[in-house]
Design goal:
Layout: E1 2-8, H1 10-14, H2 18-27, E2 31-38, H3 42-48, H4 58-65, E3 70-77, H5 80-88, H6 101-105, E4 114-116, H7 120-130
Antiparallel strand pairs: 1-3, 1-4, 2-3
The structure holds adenosine-3',5'-cyclic-monophosphate.
Length: 134
Amino acid sequence: MERTLAIIKPDAVSAKHTGNIIDIIENNDFNIVRMYKTKLSKDQAERFYGVHKGKPFFQELVDMMTSGPIIVLALEKDGAIKAWRELMGDTNPANAAPGTIRNLYGVSIGSNATHGSDAPATAAQELAFFFPDL
Ligand code: CMP
């Protein structure tokens, strides 16, 4: 089975959507392999999102991801990477299909409730970042 990294972002945690999002994850047959709550330092957020360094929204992204606690999850399912991205919906909540997590709980492109790895190589990298023992 494939694994992917999911993050419930500060906007969704502070709005108390954690339970609802975990319900959606389990109702869609993902196994939660590992999960914990943490708060990213500026250095951690800059390293995690290093691929976006230099983009106009980088500072906003780092500020948002360090604004409060997050929940990180290692999810497992056949085709987990694509399945989790489909369940999250479009990056911009305004374009996210009805019923997707970002449609339900996203506020803006920056505060879009959840993160998910976009490919096998990034999933391996992102899982190792938060779950070095996996
Ligand atoms: P995420 O899946 O966590 O990966 C990178 C994040 O950058 C993305 O979700 C968005 O929250 C954020 N992002 C992408 N484009 C923009 C933008 N134009 N303005 C602010 N944030 C953005």
